[in-house]
Structures are given as structure tokens and as C-alpha cells.
Amino acid sequence: KCVIVCSAGNDATDRPTFPAALWKGGDPALNLQEEDQLARHLAVGALNPQNTSVALYSNVGSWVTHFAPGTSVVSVFPSLEGGVQSGSKNDRYERRRQSLDPDDHTGGFAIWSGTSFASPFVAAMIARELTAPLMLGKLPKAGPDDPVVRALAAVTKIDKSRKDGKPPQ
User: Fold this and answer.
1) Taking the CB of residue 33, how many other CB atoms lie within 10 A of it?
2) H helices then E strands: how many in the chain?
3) Which residues of 74-113 are buried (b: 16+ CB within 10 A; e: fewer)?
């Protein structure tokens, strides 16, 4: 089973971007004739945290196949302290006080946004469904119980951004 999951891009445009739009339905100028011979190709845009709207920075368009959580995602980050906020300190009562420092990653985590965080979410959902049968010593099967179809149905269910409430085509 091979599925290609691409970030749709963070340019706030509906212009096809590549490699995300590199599928038969993505850009008609590509003239890809043998779609059934190609690996499944997904272009993933980013949702805001509540999953009810697409992030303004996310690329959109008919070539974007799915939208997934991609805004304000907490992820691991190398421990480092960036800029210094000397002007926003207000030490009192033997405690250090200051505003949130977005460059202080000494806790080992950071908050990120982008379609490059939405696409791994989709890839992980697919991987979870593909590995479930493997853990039981079986091979994933195509057809009505296709693990990729199940994973993408779960991703579609998360996306509440469509005004008409219908799933994507």
C-alpha cells in the first residue's frame, strides 16, 4: 500500500502548489492519464484548533483533498532559550515574573501552525489503520474494509469547516 500525503501550503491561495496538486484532479494542465496506476495522492490543508474553519494561511481549492488540524499544534522542540524579554519582567516576592516568551523553548515543546503539521496528522491516521491488521498478523486489505478509506473517513469526520456540512467530493 502506498499513499502520498502532501502539505497543501501556507500561501493563503487557491493556486495549485506542488507537489500537493500533483494528481489527476489537481491540475488539468498536467494531463495525468493513468490515475489508476498512480499511488493515492493527498493534498492536506490546515484547520484551526476547533476544526470548524480552515486556517487563513492554508491553501485551499478543489485540488486540496482533505483538511486536518494544523494550527497551534504542540510538538517537541530542542531545549533552547531564544530572545530575552528584559522590558517585560516584573520580579516580585522572590519570584521571576514576565510575559510569555515565544522564544523560550527550555521546556522542550513549542506551538506550531502550518499545513506541514496537518499532513502528518493525516499520515498518522493512515498509519494507525494500516498497522492495526499487521499487529494481528494479517495484511491490510483493499475493498470495503480498506484501512486507508477508514482513516480518511475519520479525517473527514473531524473536518467541520464546510458551510453546507457535506463531506468533500
Assistant:
1) 9
2) 2, 5
3) eeeeeeeeeeeeeeeeeeeeeeeeeeeeeebbeeeebeeb
The 8-class DSSP code of residue 130 comes to: H
pLDDT at 115 over 90: yes
Could you give the angle at the alpha carbon of 74 between the alpha carbons of 68 and 77, nearest 5°?
125
Amino acid 82: pLDDT: 67
Q: Work out the average pLDDT over 70-91.
A: 77
State the Cα–Cα distance between residues 62 and 78, nearest whole angstrom. Answer: 37
Q: Across-strand partners of 74? A: 111
Beta strands 66-69 and 73-76, pairing class:
unpaired
> Which among 107, 132, 118, 116 is positioned nearest to 161, based on CA atoms?
118
Q: Show the cell assigned to 83.
A: 530572545
The whole-angstrom separation of Cα 50 and Cα 163 is: 15
Q: Which three cell numbers stand for residue 50?
A: 476547533
Exposed / middle / buried, residue 25 (Cβ in 10 Å: 0-12, 13-18, 19+) = middle
